[in-house]
Amino acid sequence: MERYGAIAAIAPFAAAVSAFDRLKDDLGGPRAAVLAHHEMEELIEMQGLEVLRLLFQGHLDLRARVERDQQQHAGTAGLVGPDGLRRPYRETGHHRDRPACSAPSPLSGAPGGTRA
Hints:
Layout lengths: L5 H5 L3 H15 L1 H4 L3 H38 L4 E2 L5 E2 L29
Antiparallel strand pairs: 1-2
Helix pairs in contact: 2-4
């Protein structure tokens, strides 16, 4: 798989960078100094998951753009998959919701990160 161009790869991640900067500001701000330990963990978990979600979405947006470019250059020949085989078809219109995380949190040990 070819690497994404560095300049073209920046824009899709702007929202994630902004969310990370907000988290850094919150952690270094006066509000964080008065939070209890568990409240700080919750803040990091909530905002951290949003940063991860936005990073993943940025990756998907970048991948979609690269695939559109490949399709335009390939014409009707289709796309080449990661295995090197040419795909003469392309399915569009699919939507995937991000499933809720139900894995145990390493901090709480309970499903979904709930506290006992």
